[in-house]
Structure formats: C-alpha cells, structure tokens
C-alpha cells in the first residue's frame, strides 16, 4: 500500500481531503481545497507507535505532517479520528501495516510533549507540574491568543455579533450576578488564571476578592495588572494551591475552569473544601468543561492529555451535581454554554492566526502547532457535542434552610 493510500484509508471513503506523500503518491479529489501532506517516513512511524489521535498529533507537531488550507475544516472532514480514537480493529490493521516503518525510522517524541512525573495522581506536586506545563509558557503568547481580557475560559456571548472582549466581560458579569455579589462581600476565586474574575468583582461590584492559581506566570501577571488598575485595596492574587487557602467565611466562591484538573476521585474533597470556605448563605458557581453523557469516559483525548491538559479529567454534569449535593450544597441552577465555547474557541483560533509568526518566534514551532491543533479540534468538539460547558450554582444553606436566593433568577437571560 502506497503512503497516500494508507492515510486515505484512515480518513475513510468519500473524504474531501487530498492526500499527497513523499513517495509521489496521491489520493483524494485533485481539486480539493483541503490537503494533507505526508512529508517523511517518520509520519508513518508516529502513526505506527500510536495509531489514532496521538500518533497523528505527534506527526503534525513534529512537522512530518503538513496541512494545506484551513485546519478547522480539515479536522471537520477528519473528525472521526480527530475527536475519537480509531476503532480497535483498524488500529490492529494499521499496526501490522506500519510495523516496518516503526522499526526502520526513528520518530522521537516531540520535546513539548508532557512526561508525567512519578507520584500520586493529583498530588499537590504533580498538579503543580501539570499546570506549569500548560500555563507557564509565555504571558505574551497568551495575550495574543486570548486578547486583552486574558480570560482563558468560555465566554458568554450576549448576541451572535458580540466580540470576544464583550463576551468575556459578560461571562464575568454573569458569574458575579449568579453569586449575588454586592459591595463589601468577600469572594474566593479558585484557579483564578490571570485574575479576570478577581478584578471584575473588585472593579464592578466593590467586592474584596482573593484569587489563587498554581501558575507562577499567571500570578505574576495578575498582580502587576491589579496594581496597574489601582485595585490593590480590593483584589489579590496568590501563587497558591486552592487546598492551601487558610481563610474562611467567604460570601461567595467561583471556580471557573478548575474542575477539569481535579480528577473524579478528588471531587468529594474538592466540593467539601469549597463548602467549608463559605459562610451560611454563601454561593458557589462551578464553571467547567463536561462530558456530554453520564456514560462517557472521564479521561480526555490522548493528544489533549499529553500536550495540553496533563492529568485532566472531565465529568458529566450529573456527577458534578451529585457530588455538590453530597457535600452539602443545595443546587439551584445549571446551564449548558456549549455553543458559547465553540464561538470562544473560534475567536482564539482567529487571534492565533493573526499572530502566527510572532507566536512561533515566542514559543517555538512545535508549541505553536500544538495550540493550532488543540484550539481547532476543541472548537469542533463543542460544535459536535463531544464536550460541553456547564455552570452549576449551589448555595450553603443558613439557619432554618434559608437560601437567600431570589424566588426567580435575577441575573437575566
């Protein structure tokens, strides 16, 4: 089997993608707008070593696979192996076909691939390493991708025409209103990133806000930005594990994009700890990526695990609601923002494309390729309902089960 034919067989019949290869072979429509170029035998060795998304990703990150045309529509055409694993029978067939390439051609694992250290999963030390791998890259690089808000979580679009900055402000305001923030309150934001929620609560609602993050680079940027905005009396960001926050008695806790890093076995302790940080009547807003069904596996795609969010785990919204309730929270509201995250990722893809040459100079070609692939694939994942984004609001009841909640939601649509 010639090389282009082999890759075309992986993509399946009727693919609109033109595959060309170093051996002169070609498959697919000659006038296709989308193309996949197999540049060297190492691409086959990568696919032999890991038949599926991980092998294809390694070949792309290393530069042995190249894309002609836009990446997102190619992934859409390639979605059955981009967002899922190749079926076991096909993997075995590929392994038999490719074993010679694996033996003859050395395919070193790209240097930007995460190599998990020894130690217990989700220990403080291991979590710190996983977070540093993804977030301690370059604040300048993140500013190009995320835009001025430096918000690295799903935005909320008030309408289809809204820009990314408006949508990120709207997201922070929605969280603030769901939490019922008012001047004089105290907010704890766990996994605070670059401090967007902390600064929003302080500037827009007069709330004394504490954020914590395991990323040293994020904390450094956030502290400088808090000072620049003159919010030092109300806002604070610490380089700290959320498990090590000593203060209690908060009026509200926000967790925006942290639960994905927690792990299923740690969920009871996670929600119990956040419950313990609240005063009676205090609210928790948990905002995180979720699995679309209760039966989906908790693990993330192998490419995402090795290159993007090491040790990450996703859970169904039912699991989150059950665990929150089990730890004492009364769950009052939840909503799925899946389409909003697809739009957010599309905006980040556009930002990266605009700054592509600068991004490559700043973080290197391999890491820039990781991001290009990850953002486009995740956009497709949300559009196809392979992943979702839920906000779940809970309250720690007060005396005689008083919730302090309005009779109907007062945070708008």
From TrEMBL:
<keyword id="KW-0949">S-adenosyl-L-methionine</keyword>
<dbReference type="InterPro" id="IPR050723">
    <property type="entry name" value="CFA/CMAS"/>
</dbReference>
<dbReference type="GO" id="GO:0032259">
    <property type="term" value="P:methylation"/>
</dbReference>
<keyword id="KW-0808">Transferase</keyword>
<keyword id="KW-0443">Lipid metabolism</keyword>
<protein>
    <submittedName>
        <fullName>Class I SAM-dependent methyltransferase</fullName>
    </submittedName>
</protein>
<keyword id="KW-0489">Methyltransferase</keyword>
<dbReference type="GO" id="GO:0008168">
    <property type="term" value="F:methyltransferase activity"/>
</dbReference>
<dbReference type="InterPro" id="IPR029063">
    <property type="entry name" value="SAM-dependent_MTases_sf"/>
</dbReference>
<dbReference type="Pfam" id="PF02353">
    <property type="entry name" value="CMAS"/>
</dbReference>
<comment type="similarity">
    <text>Belongs to the CFA/CMAS family.</text>
</comment>
<dbReference type="InterPro" id="IPR003333">
    <property type="entry name" value="CMAS"/>
</dbReference>
């Amino acid at each position: 089997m010639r090389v282009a034919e082999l890759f075309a067989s992986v993509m399946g019949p009727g693919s609109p993608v033109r595959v060309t290869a170093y051996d002169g072979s070609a498959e697919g429509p000659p006038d296709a707008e989308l193309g996949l170029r197999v540049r060297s035998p190492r691409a086959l060795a990568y696919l032999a070593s890991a038949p599926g998304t991980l092998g294809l990703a390694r070949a792309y990150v290393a530069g042995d696979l190249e894309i002609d045309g836009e990446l997102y529509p190619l992934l859409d055409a390639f979605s059955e192996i981009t967002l899922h694993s190749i079926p076991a029978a096909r993997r075995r067939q590929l392994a038999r076909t490719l074993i010679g390439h694996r033996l003859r051609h050395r395919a070193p694992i790209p240097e930007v691939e995460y190599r998990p250290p020894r130690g217990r999963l989700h220990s403080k030390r291991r979590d710190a390493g996983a977070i540093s791998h993804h977030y301690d890259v370059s604040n300048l690089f993140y500013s190009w991708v995320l835009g001025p808000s430096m918000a690295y979580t799903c935005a909320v679009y008030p309408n289809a025409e809204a820009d990314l900055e408006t949508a990120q402000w709207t997201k922070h305001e929605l969280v603030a209103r769901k939490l019922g923030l008012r001047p004089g309150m105290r907010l704890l934001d766990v996994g605070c990133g670059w401090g967007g929620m902390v600064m929003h609560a302080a500037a827009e609602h007069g709330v004394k806000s504490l954020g914590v993050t395991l990323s040293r680079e994020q904390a450094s940027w956030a502290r400088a930005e808090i000072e620049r905005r003159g919010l030092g009396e109300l806002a604070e960001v610490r380089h700290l594990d959320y498990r090590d926050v000593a203060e209690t008695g908060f009026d509200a806790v926000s967790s925006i994009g942290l639960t994905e890093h927690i792990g299923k076995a740690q969920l009871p302790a996670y929600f119990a700890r956040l419950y313990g940080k609240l005063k009676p009547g205090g609210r928790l807003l948990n905002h995180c990526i979720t699995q679309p069904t209760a039966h989906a596996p908790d693990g993330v795609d192998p490419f995402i695990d090795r290159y993007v969010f090491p040790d990450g785990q996703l859970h169904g919204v039912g699991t989150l609601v059950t665990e929150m309730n089990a730890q004492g929270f009364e769950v009052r509201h939840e909503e799925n923002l899946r389409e909003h995250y697809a739009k957010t990722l599309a905006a980040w893809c556009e930002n990266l494309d605009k700054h592509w040459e600068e991004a490559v100079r700043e973080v290197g070609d391999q890491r820039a390729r990781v991001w290009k692939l990850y953002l486009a694939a995740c956009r497709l994942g949300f559009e196809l309902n392979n992943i979702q984004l839920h906000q779940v609001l809970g309250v720690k009841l007060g005396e005689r089960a008083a919730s302090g909640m309005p009779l109907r939601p007062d945070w708008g649509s």
